[in-house]
Amino acid sequence: LKIYSSPDKRLTTSLYKKTLDCSPLLHFRSNHSLSCRKGVVYSQALRYNLIIADDNLLQVHLDELTRTLLCRDYPLHTIIKLIKRALTHTRESLINNPRSHSDDQQVTPFITPYTPEGKHLAKIIQSHWHIIDNNPQLRTI
């Protein structure tokens, strides 16, 4: 986060990047799930929208993000779609209404490796999860 005084003497914010920043974002052809790869684009655009106060500067940084993502083999139509989705949130709504996590739903993480075999294993577990869910003993484990 970069905080500075605007020409009208108000404090404003922008994105701070180190001089040697190489934007090590996930490559689109990685073995990560499609939702994870799309999440890279959306979360970065949402972060920029939250941090950068000036709309013109925001567009400059989003253009730079787009170029970086294109170099990482992200499809342009996907980048545009996800950036537009991130920009549907106003900066004020992001500041005043941070995403709240519900405590009434318990989630059991099951982590698999990011490989083709891991994806297959995750699908098998998801399709049979009801067995664990319906068994009181298994549910507590």
- Proportion in β-strands: 5-15%
In helices, the fraction of residues equals 40-55%
Q: In order across it, which strands form the biggest sheet?
A: 1-2
User: How confident overall, as mean pLDDT?
Assistant: 86
Low-confidence stretches: none
Output the number of helix runs: 6
Count every beta strand, where a strand is a DSSP E run of 2 or more residues: 2
Mind describing the biggest β-sheet?
2 strands, antiparallel
One letter per element, helices H and strands E, the order comes to: EEHHHHHH
Cα gyration radius (Å)? 20 Å
**What overall geometry do the principal axes of the alpha carbons give?**
elongated
User: N- to C-terminal separation?
Assistant: 42 Å
Secondary structure category: mainly alpha
Task: Give a short overview.
This protein has 141 residues and is mostly helical. The protein is 54% helix and 6% strand.
